[in-house]
Predict the structure.
Amino acid sequence: MKYVLVTGGVVSGLGKGVTASSIGVILKSCGLRVTSIKIDPYLNTDAGTMSPFEHGEVFVLDDGGEVDLDLGNYERFLDIVLTRDNNITTGKIYQSVINKERKGDYLGRTVQVVPHITDAIQEWIERVAMIPVDGKEGPADVCVIELGGTIGDIESMPFIEALGQFSYRVGAGNFCLIHVSLVPVLNVVGEQKTKPTQHSVRGLRSLGLMPNILACRSTTELDENVKAKISQFCHVPEENIISLYDVSNIWHVPLLLKDQMAHNAILKVLHLQGVAREPVLEEWTARAKLCDMLHEPVRIAMVGKYTGLSDSYLSVLKALLHACVAWRRKLIVDWVLSTDLEEATAKENPDAYSEAWNLLKGADGVLVPGGFGDRGVQGKMLAAKYARENGIPFFGICLGMQIAVIEFAQSVLGLHDANSIEFDPNTRRPCVIFMPEVSKTHMGGTMRLGSRKTYFQVADCISAKLYGNKGFIEERHRHRYEVNPDIVPQLEDAGLLFTGKDESGQRMEIVELANHPFFVGVQFHPEFKSRPGKPSALFLGLIAAACGQLDAFLKKRVIKSNAISNGTATLKPHHYANGAEKTPNWSALGVVCSNGNGVHC
């Protein structure tokens, strides 16, 4: 096993996650199998109990792991399926060591950070690196490890020590350290300053880690004299200093690495030059360039309560982007703070109220993402009501589905006291109830989590057609409340149809409104499985509806799914510029391409 460690210096938020993901992409394009590990030095066992304002979104894996959002970047960039153990936290490590101590595994020895904690970290890395994540048998060739935080943080010291020991133990030819640092440009002098990087590398070396490659973040490409200066003071060869300057979209980052021969530097350190091929990134390059050329806009109003931090909805944004690129549309997200849509804001801040409603009314589609708590719920229901009454494409995810059900019960059924037990524990008409199997005393890891099956109840519905008329689908969940099955008959009689349910038939998974262009709510989170080349079916449907193309799109999908099911479709490989063949990805059939015929090319 070969290991690539990505660390960061100077400041947080430099893009270590994107850099680590891009390193994985370029190594994968060289024919190597890649897995990833993210180390988060916080004491939380996982990210599940943290506010989105604190740490961005909580990304959910197939196995139900609630992990850091960077694992979402790894899955999207590398098209892999990770496990909860691919996210290491201080809490997990200390918990495992304390559990061993309680069982007597240390045979009376004094348990200390060194060697017990550091050994546990190294054992965890070696064990998880061997887990296949790409659907193939056997371990990967390279494990990319990202250490969260910045060098010098007190909480990351045990990991630094463990990784220093680890690099010595596995040997120089099996370990490559890439340090991401900042080269700021001061407006006063307009010069790229190298001192922050020099100090960061000095701190790294003082802790026993020697960087093989420096990835320098800057607003503009590094000057050659700046590279030479960094090389001289940081003892890193000039050809191993990579300039990661600002780009129009993050899909360009692997291309920056390729253009600067970063793969050669990594392969040389890992003694893989005779094993790997030259990187093949034609599809990736085409997608990155296409994203830059999009000009015809589609406006989506994102109605939530964490709109002040876009990372709170990172996977939703990426899924929207994937769908928009497939439809050749430029994504414009209008952030609407749900509380600004409420009557209370009209009195306290009429300008914010007016602006929020103008954004909502000017949107081509409305999306209400997941969330917890009662703040802003009334505004989300008002957004759902506006979309329902005015024929605006609407997509509700998790809580977004639940508020759509509550609003329908209140406005259409006339059940004005209908509510969720989450918002009103004493409501007489609970539309949304607490799931009986979920703990009421512990919050962490107790929700309904991970990949679950949803069975379509009818074939002739929007969601079933978007998914290709499959009998069932598997999507990831994260919720502790669900639609009350007792109220379902009333809702369906009024036209709100539950077209997807779990295997018991009692848990509502998908809801659609009859006689509406696109009004869909789902209890699961389809954004977590969307990929750049394989957009989520429901996000494709939302963008298609927002562009006025849904009916034609669904007809094409029905024709293609029927052709495949009766054996009349012919699977033909298509060719890349280098002459290689690849069978079309039929799970992505129906994505509109430049030829305009709706066939994935």
